[in-house]
From TrEMBL:
<feature type="coiled-coil region">
    <location>
        <begin position="88"/>
        <end position="122"/>
    </location>
</feature>
<keyword id="KW-0175">Coiled coil</keyword>
<dbReference type="GO" id="GO:0030970">
    <property type="term" value="P:retrograde protein transport, ER to cytosol"/>
</dbReference>
<comment type="similarity">
    <text>Belongs to the selenoprotein S family.</text>
</comment>
<keyword id="KW-0812">Transmembrane</keyword>
<dbReference type="Pfam" id="PF06936">
    <property type="entry name" value="Selenoprotein_S"/>
</dbReference>
<feature type="compositionally biased region" description="Polar residues">
    <location>
        <begin position="137"/>
        <end position="153"/>
    </location>
</feature>
<keyword id="KW-0256">Endoplasmic reticulum</keyword>
<feature type="region of interest" description="Disordered">
    <location>
        <begin position="137"/>
        <end position="194"/>
    </location>
</feature>
<protein>
    <submittedName>
        <fullName>Selenoprotein S</fullName>
    </submittedName>
</protein>
<keyword id="KW-0963">Cytoplasm</keyword>
<keyword id="KW-0472">Membrane</keyword>
<dbReference type="GO" id="GO:0036513">
    <property type="term" value="C:Derlin-1 retrotranslocation complex"/>
</dbReference>
<dbReference type="InterPro" id="IPR009703">
    <property type="entry name" value="Selenoprotein_S"/>
</dbReference>
<dbReference type="GO" id="GO:0036502">
    <property type="term" value="C:Derlin-1-VIMP complex"/>
</dbReference>
<keyword id="KW-1133">Transmembrane helix</keyword>
<dbReference type="GO" id="GO:0030968">
    <property type="term" value="P:endoplasmic reticulum unfolded protein response"/>
</dbReference>
Length: 194
């Protein structure tokens, strides 16, 4: 083997090695590994006491979740068919009682609404007697109509469009009678020209 053949073999081996490492990094396990490495480096840079408290919190939550699952499943497995039936009947009874209470409140509300409607009807009748042929209109609409009629007749004065301030009044210049008036400061800075 010549020297050029040896170099060619070395180059192909190196290229194959580089390709395989690149593919392994690019594959799903390589991505997961790099994410794991990044997470590990971040966690090691954080205060170790914080990591300890986080680990204890996770452990506590896992234990609590497991114990609640065990008790709930054990609770239902220990019940007999009669006890399950009794619970269902109790739930149904509670539902019926709540529905009856709701229906009772709905009836009371409907009665109150009818009473309010009756009061409004009586008020309209009083307005009818009071104002004559204006059928079923409330006093508010009648008052608005009467004010519109008065405007059309010219009884009410039209509001003046004049401003209450003098035309030469400028609040920045004072009221004119005093010798002191506002003068803005000079914008120029120091003693430079300009």
């Amino acid at each position: 083997m010549t020297e050029s053949d040896e170099w060619a073999t070395v180059e192909t081996v190196v290229e194959d090695d580089m390709d395989s490492t690149f593919e392994s990094r690019r594959g799903p396990s390589g991505i997961q590994q790099s994410i794991f490495e990044q997470t590990l480096s971040v966690l090691t840079s954080i205060n170790p006491w914080l990591l300890l408290f986080i680990a204890l919190g996770v452990y506590y939550l896992v234990q609590k979740f497991r114990s609640s699952q065990v008790t709930s499943s054990a609770e239902y497995s220990n019940l007999s068919a009669d006890e399950i039936l009794a619970r269902q009947e109790a739930v149904e009874l509670a539902r019926r009682q709540m529905q009856e209470e709701y229906d009772k409140k709905a009836r009371e509300h409907a009665i109150k609404q009818k009473e309010k409607e009756e009061l409004l009807r009586q008020e309209k009748l009083k307005n009818l007697e009071k104002y004559g042929t204006k059928l079923g209109r409330s006093s508010k609409t009648l008052a608005a109509e009467s004010s519109n009629d008065q405007l059309q007749q010219g009884v009410l004065k039209k509001k003046s469009d004049k401003s209450k301030l003098k035309p030469e009044y400028n609040p920045l210049m004072g009221d004119g009678s005093s010798g002191v008036c506002y003068r803005p400061t000079r914008r120029g800075g120091g003693a430079g020209g300009g």
